[in-house]
Design brief:
With 358 residues, the protein is mainly alpha-helical. The chain has helices at 21-34, 46-49, 56-72, 89-99, 104-108, 111-132, 144-150, 155-158, 160-169, 183-200, 240-248, 267-272, 278-290, 295-322, 324-353; strands at 8-13, 39-44, 81-84, 175-178, 208-211.
């Protein structure tokens, strides 16, 4: 299929630190799988990151880390366009235009903002209780507006959904793969597109969410969902030492070597199967079910398979990190390509709103 007839897939990734195998199997890998089927645009959402990261070194390093992570797992810059958001200043320009079509109460209904304010509200209530001295049975209600005033939510965080709408709409994206937590943001983008189209005439395509179905929840070393906040993650680019330590920390039951074991009740198997193809999964299941394999052996097998899987990714990442100029060039070229495309769109938008008079 030619590039022109393919649907446009767009996704933004916020630099959030070290990625783990839950991120990989839950989301990152899907971009690699989809890069032939779609005309893919993957960008590093550095301006979104600024809503929480106000540290120069940390932001710059975060941007480079995302680029390294995605190139190491096999995003191919010949097939996809990898770029960083801040290289497309038209996105910030479009955000302003959208801001002027967006009301404050509409943005105040966004989940992320509401969560931030309710955290601030809770703190505020606690501090009032502290000031007046806790009295049993007395409840203090703080008003939402008060909470907003005392909260440290910045305007950028408040406006987060509109910046994201601009990211998506400026590219005429057809599909936007996101996790369940980002679904509301896609609805915001659709609303904004409709508002603009109603006000100034048909201009923006309504994007479809493409909810990355977590076919299976990726479990962490303690059996709960793998998540940084639980401290149960295995880093995707882990060293052999880290892999060994993580696997050894996975709890098992007290079944003896000879006893048959149910793979579907084992954390060890739940993690191990991610690294195996159908055939090897079947073989491993049999080993569990037959008995004769103790947990020590099962862990050794997992360490080997996980290391074999991770090693080439880690080595590729290390190689790329030694050649940062090439990585930065990939971002620059990607940014320039997107720039040309969106500039056409923005010229039309400027005319339509009335500022483009030349
Ligand atoms: N908000 C997204 C996240 O936290 C990142 C993001 C920013 C994004 N702009 C986007 C995702 C545009 C898809 C499309 O994961």
């Amino acid at each position: 299929m030619s590039k022109e007839s393919k649907k446009i897939l767009l996704s933004g990734v916020k630099p959030t630190g070290r990625v783990h195998i839950g991120n990989y199997f839950g989301a990152m890998k899907q971009f690699v799988d989809l890069q032939d089927e779609y005309d893919c645009y993957v960008f590093i959402a550095d301006y979104h990151a600024m809503t929480t990261v106000q540290d120069k070194e940390k932001l710059s390093k975060g941007i480079i880390d995302v680029a390294l992570d995605y190139l190491a797992i096999g995003l191919d810059p010949k097939k996809i366009t990898l770029f960083k958001q801040s290289d497309i200043p038209q996105v910030a320009e479009l955000t302003w235009i959208f801001n002027c079509l967006t009301t404050v109460p509409y943005l105040a209904r966004a989940h992320a903002f509401k969560d931030a304010v309710s955290r601030a509200q809770k703190k505020h209530t606690e501090s009032i209780l502290e000031d007046i001295g806790k009295v049993d049975g007395v409840e203090v209600h703080t008003d939402l507006y008060d909470a907003m005033v005392v909260s440290n939510v910045n305007v950028g965080l408040f406006d987060y959904p509109i910046l994201m709408a601009a990211d998506i709409l400026i590219q005429d994206a057809d599909v936007v793969p996101v996790g369940q937590d980002q679904k509301q943001h896609i609805e915001y983008a659709r609303d904004v597109a409709q508002k603009f189209n109603n006000t100034y005439g048909e201009t923006f395509k309504l994007p479809e969410p493409f909810i990355v179905s977590e076919v299976e929840t990726i479990v962490g070393t303690d059996g709960r969902k793998m998540s940084k906040s639980y401290g149960n993650v295995i880093p995707l680019f882990a060293t052999d030492e880290e892999i060994k330590k993580a696997v050894m920390s996975i709890p098992t039951d007290s079944k003896g070597v000879a006893e048959p074991k149910n793979p579907d009740e084992s954390n060890l198997y739940a993690i191990h199967k991610l690294f195996l193809d159908e055939e090897s999964r079947k073989n491993l299941r049999e080993k569990y079910e037959k008995g004769g394999m103790g947990y020590k052996e099962a862990k050794e097998l997992l360490i080997k398979d996980m290391s074999d899987f991770i090693r080439p990714l880690r080595e590729k990442r290390e190689m790329l990190a030694k050649d940062l100029d090439t990585v930065l060039d990939i971002l620059k070229v990607g940014g320039a390509r997107v720039n040309t495309r969106v500039e056409k769109k923005m010229a039309d938008v400027r005319k339509k709103v009335g500022v483009g008079i030349y």
